[in-house]
Amino acid sequence: MRTGSFDRYASVLFALIGAAFLFESRNIAKSAYGSEVGPNVFPFLLGLILILLSVKLFLESFKSVQNNNNDREKLMVKRFLIILIASILYAAFLETIGYLISTFVFLFVSFQTMEKGGWVKNALIAGVFSFCVYYLFVVVLKGSLPGLPIWFS
């Protein structure tokens, strides 16, 4: 399988996952007690972003130069599997270890998978992004996300 065809299949898969997020977010209550932003907003936006990025990937897969380098293809599949497993673990442990820690670890693993090295830079970006999104969603928008675990405090 060439890189372009793998990208097309992956983009369709991610678009379907994004559509599932959109569809299932409608089943979540529209508002939460004491929150101006309902719990359905975050999954809806994630699904929408995933669909838009999938469309972009699908369109770019036709533009990409076709090469038959099998080592590169194996590397891309390996990266895909690492990030897929990290995503599943992120969803599984989000409630247990909280948003800040799980998002930081997920982003750090993803950044390291895509670009080896640069540990400090990747850790800094993952930490700042995690904190800023948490602050924006919880403090500014008055939403709720799982905080730090009890054993961490």
TrEMBL record:
InterPro entries: DUF1468
Transmembrane region(s): 41-59, 80-111, 123-141
Pfam families: TctB
Record's keyword annotation contains Membrane: yes
Keywords in alphabetical order: Membrane, Transmembrane, Transmembrane helix
Domain of life: Bacteria
Domain DUF1468: 10-146
Name of the protein this chain belongs to: Transporter
Protein source organism: Fictibacillus arsenicus
